[in-house]
Amino acid sequence: LRIFSPEDEALVFQCVVALMLRHGMNQYFGDRFPKLRLTSLQFDILVEAFFPNTLAPTFDHFNLSAEFYATQWFLTLFCYSLPFGHVVKIWDH
User: Fold this and answer.
1) What pLDDT, in 10s, does the model give residues 65-83?
2) What distance in Å separates the CA atoms of residue 88 and residue 90, rounded to the nearest whole number?
3) End-to-end CA distance of the chain
């Protein structure tokens, strides 16, 4: 991950525009959060697929969906819930 300097303001702006428009981040913040709801549903399906005998039954037992625990991850792109070094690795991947 490249740390931007004040001289790179135009490049930073282009990156934000790309995230919001090309990659659909603006849909996370629309009326009733349409993409956030879809992403949460997809994450629930992934939990069921990859953890069918451990997490999935526990989450089902407590009626817990990704909307309860993963919303902040998706809306902040993991900035507030992971150490910076891990965030850099996720973003660079």
Assistant:
1) 999 999 888 878 767 777 8
2) 5
3) 10
State both tokens at 91: 């973003």
Q: Return the sign of the alpha-carbon dihedral for residues 80, 82, 84, 87.
A: negative
CA distance 93 to 90: 5
Distance CA 59, CA 31 (A): 27
* Residue whose pair of structure tokens reads 């973003």 in the numeric block: 91
Provide the 3-class DSSP secondary structure of residue 74.
Answer: helix
pLDDT at 88 over 70: yes
- Closest to 36 measured CA to CA, from 3, 91, 85, 77: 77
Phi-psi region of 65 (alpha: psi -120 to 50; beta: other; left: phi over 0): beta
| Residue pLDDT, tens place only, 37-50 | 999 999 999 999 99
Task: Indicate if the pLDDT at residue 52 is higher than 90.
Answer: yes
- DSSP assignment letter at 71: H
